[in-house]
Specification:
- This protein has 363 residues and is α/β, with parallel strands linked by helices.
- The protein has 2 domains: 1-264, no CATH class; 265-357, no CATH class.
- 25% of the residues lie in helices and 15% in strands.
- The chain has 5 helices and 15 strands.
- Strands 1-4-15 form a 3-stranded mixed beta sheet, with no helix packed on it.
- The chain is elongated, with a radius of gyration of 25 Å.
Length: 363
């Protein structure tokens, strides 16, 4: 089975997660738990044939951001959407991407609502090539949609958005979940990928801005973030306070943990300005020479930053319609490239400082 960790390789969280993003992928360390799920109303289904994909907190360069829930047309008859979920393991959090398949699989025991109450799916079912909706848990207009039934469900309210760890959901895969894991799966379809990209670029959907209460909690169709089909969250799942920028390390060198207190970055334009040390040899002419050398080095380094930033932005443009797994692999590459550039520049600066601080050679 193919399961992808969008933000971190968690090879031992669950037995059914057996394939990482890539064997040489840069490991991302996310030590901050995602916010609790906000409270919102499901928009009415836009037409027959759509299946609900619940909203969730994703992670990007600016921290957690909300991907609104939306109605999606499945890629083929008979397929159901298994939502992704955050899992905790060994002090870090990793995202397990959702997928389409003939059966609902494990999604961490997370109560996403609207039929996804932690196990399986009670919002609807396929029967004879037609989808029937459970109107007791989904917002269905029965005037236009006649394939409905009513099945009452007792649900325990829970807004926790991750599995495992302190405060997380303790659910584990059931036998039917493990069977579903062996099915053939299809990743998010194109409109879902575009929906994620739209959410990622929307500043209002960042948890640091909306405090866990996104102004666009759900949409009637993918990418329709404006208009009557978009609904806002009624309230945050719990009070949320955004962590200080840089408090959550991102890429770890060599896949391990970053040094304590170290700040790491995903793109060159996030890097801080380099520290400059004015030469002070006691010789004005030598100081001028050393200053010119520093200026030349910093100018070249700035040019290299700009070149890498431009290269990464061009890749972002090309990957706009790619599946989420490939986009997140791209972010891992960008983080690794940026870190390697930063390390190389730091080493060059240290070497120059050592050369310039050495006593002048005497003949």
């Amino acid at each position: 089975m193919r399961r992808f960790f969008s933000n971190i390789l968690l090879s031992s969280v669950l037995a059914l997660m057996v394939m990482p993003v890539a064997t040489n992928a840069q490991t991302l360390i996310i030590r901050i738990a995602p916010p609790e799920l906000p409270v919102y109303v499901q928009p009415a289904i836009p037409a027959y044939g759509y299946i609900w994909a619940p909203g969730y907190w994703a992670y990007g360069p600016d921290g957690y951001y909300w991907v609104p829930g939306t109605w999606v047309q499945p890629p083929s008859v008979g397929l159901l959407w298994t939502p992704g979920y955050w899992g905790w393991h060994d002090g870090v959090y990793g995202w397990n991407a959702g997928y389409w398949g003939p059966h609902i699989g494990f999604y961490g025991g997370i109560n996403y609502g609207f039929g996804y109450f932690g196990e399986g799916f009670v919002g609807g079912r396929w029967d004879g090539g037609h989808f029937f909706y459970n109107r007791s848990v989904t917002n269905i207009n029965i005037v236009n949609i006649h394939n409905v039934y009513e099945e009452r469900v007792n649900v325990r309210e829970n807004r926790i958005s991750y599995n495992g760890g302190a405060g997380g959901i303790s659910a584990r895969p059931r036998p039917e979940d493990e069977m579903a894991a062996r099915d053939r799966h299809i990743g998010a379809v194109g409109v879902q990928s575009q929906h994620i990209q739209e959410a990622r670029g929307n500043r209002e959907l960042r948890a640091s801005v909306n405090q866990g209460r996104p102004p666009i909690a759900a949409t009637a169709r993918p990418n329709e973030f404006r208009g009557g089909g978009a609904v806002s969250a009624r309230e945050a799942g719990a009070p949320y306070r955004a962590p200080e920028r840089g408090s959550n390390a991102r890429p770890a060198p060599g896949g391990g943990n970053p040094p304590s207190g170290a700040r790491t970055f995903t793109h060159p334009n996030e890097l801080p300005a380099p520290e400059r040390h004015a030469p002070n040899t006691g010789s004005p002419s030598l100081d001028r020479k050393y200053q010119q050398q520093q200026d030349k080095m910093f100018a070249k380094q700035q040019q290299q930053r700009q070149q890498l930033q431009q290269k990464q932005e061009q890749e972002h443009q090309r990957m706009q319609s790619a599946p989420p797994q490939r986009q997140q692999q791209m972010e891992q590459r960008h983080a690794q490239q940026t870190q390697q550039l930063q390390q190389r520049h730091t080493q060059q600066q240290q070497q120059m400082q050592q050369r310039q601080s050495a006593p002048p050679h005497k003949r």
